[in-house]
């Protein structure tokens, strides 16, 4: 069905000066009640006309889309088409092509970049960022050192790189992530840490599931400290439901009641908060006893902690914790209304193979040099699918890198100075509050940075909060009607302390300045204080001035290939332009310095932004409602499936527990289904790549009484617009199931078709793919979900922040903050609004054109899976395609050889071995221009010659096996006389490389060695010294 909406042509397009020229456009627009994707329309939006005063000259479409109208014509000609619209009609099956005209909250042709920045500034100014937040509860004011802000967070070389799957061209961020892991292991005292998780709440649930899985799913009770953050409890509840884990809140001081719980032999572990959410710190003796009790019953002790506190506080290893987790936000990462921030997770050696998420490990390259890489990947969902222990694909790499650099910059002494000051300020305030004349009293007896304060009779929390805001522009946290809490952080000044004292003195006329000046600078108590010498590694003790720091970051950035170097044609990853204008607002304090629990009246900018973005995403997907909460694609899958299972429960259909998943699905699909308690039933695919509808029908009917859902990706993970998708959806609906669409390939749908039009009930959108949020070297992501109206009541709610539309049927929060990774939402907001109704469909049209152009140029040289003459399911691919290299396998050339050789040509490899082993999946996106596409084609053709050399036994074919070639290899290796190819052939196989060469800093990395000799922290001082001998 095509929705026909009458288009109103904005007056600004019908200027008198250009009336004649505009007439044809005008007529076209009226004739096209559906989206107009003709070549002429593209040209008319692309080309600005100096005489047309009604239109700003520099439109965004022209900057975002790579090919110019001229290029488009050339490419169409190569493909034998005369018009873009005809081409698209022949690519997308008729019943799939919707071309519904959009009604975005934006000008038809989009905002220009300057207009967008003004609009965003207006929104930003609706957020109160000048208020001083003492809210705490997992989110704290912090100072992002400007050198890190500009040279890392605002630097495309850091934020546009992908997850470091190709280690030879990712050594910079791998080193930084190794620094992050080292910081975590040093501060928590546990030997193994991962390279970040999504947030504290989800990290806590990973700890719960790890404990449960270790008990082989037998011990169904999980104990949690009643004194953990409220938002963490909510996320734990969400994750406990599918596995029927019973969460019991306990008082960690009450060892008798814990003994009683343990006597059931049904407890898999415990999670405590240290320091607790009320600010208190349990005694070491108590914690050791507690730990002993849990361990005696083979349970796992997990600790949610705070890195800043741990720079003073004894590490959890001293009371034998098995897992330590938390957020690294306060190490320089802006609060951003709740995210993105990197959670951390460390474990004991015995849990090293159970740890969730990505781990960076140390290995060696072909020349024996130290090299970093992602370790132990066989634990992950890519391999283990529904048996995976966790489901982390996109994590929070960029934020982990910021936190790591913050520590590199401050060093252990700098950190201790910051934390000691935080403690001292807290102590001065506590002393005042507990002084004889005060009518207030702290409820916690000890603290690091947080005081929970009981109010005197006659003062309610609401009164006090109002007073604090009105008189001192201060936000506190309301614990209950009679208690508030105050959290001190790195940004707290003497003036702030004075204001707090005035507030808690009932505004009496005391001389606070004098009082503060005379206060003792309290040292952290000896019985709680750690005594070890942490972070002694050279990297944390070298770069403390800005010049050194700048050079360290620059050195690392130069080791990484990012979109700033060349195209990253990773299939299923949509590495498109992340425009500077989209990125600029995220470091504005109006968006960055906002606490997620600030009252709604103070964050109207964020509310308006999210509402407008939700509207636009509904418009694009055809859905009735959107939740922006899930903070990765995999998290979106979990949320969408939770919404489905909760809906089914409400319908009295709890028994429906089967999830059909095609064998071509991404590993996160089966892993998410399993996390939701669903049983995965695989659906076959035909030889030609399409879904086997016969198998699907048979399975849907076989399981019709218990069918919960199907998860499908559209266009399929094979890069095909399967015409049978609507039949597949109907089959599932007819058999009582719901349809979950994995939106990873949404970049082939924008304005052309939509998940709701296809018939899906729910779909996640990777805003970090389709909607221009940069991949950050492995995160952040936003896995927003869209749903049809029957599922809307079940979208995630939040215990602290009000989400419009959330109600009693809402599932509990899936992550810690209400709007997930809110700080990066302005990026997608700007992307959509700068393209406008007319520009959006060209995103997908050009992505499809670019992919098909590559197919056309490469098909003589390589087999293209599913699109070859004899095997074709479709004449064309969608926005990505698969190069089949399996024919070379028995000649001993592997897909990985081509992937590595591409590095010598300055390209990141396409997606390797997914969805078909032995292949490369290429996705150029709409942002690459014809020159870059041709460069890639030239490189691939040249490599084809090298494959032939190898297959024909020519010595120069060895260039493939030795790839990539580092500079060191070229300069120092002694075997060049026997290689069979020259240095020049190794490094400059095509002329353009002499002008534009990216050097891999290491040679091919040995994967096996790294896994067998797991090392995932920085070398110690001793190691460095001995390696220099
Ligand atoms: C088809 C598909 N589904 C799901 C995901 C998971 O998304 P995320 O990495 O954001 O968790 C990916 C990631 O690449 C994907 O390609």
Automatic annotation (TrEMBL):
Record key words, sorted: Coiled coil, Mitochondrion, Oxidoreductase, Pyridoxal phosphate, Transit peptide
Pfam families in the cross-refs: GcvP2_C, GDC-P
Localization of this protein: Mitochondrion
Major subcellular location class: mitochondrion
Domain Glycine cleavage system P-protein N-terminal: 62-504, 544-798
GO (cellular component) term, any one: mitochondrion
EC number: 1.4.4.2
Protein name listed in UniProt: Glycine cleavage system P protein
Species: Maudiozyma saulgeensis
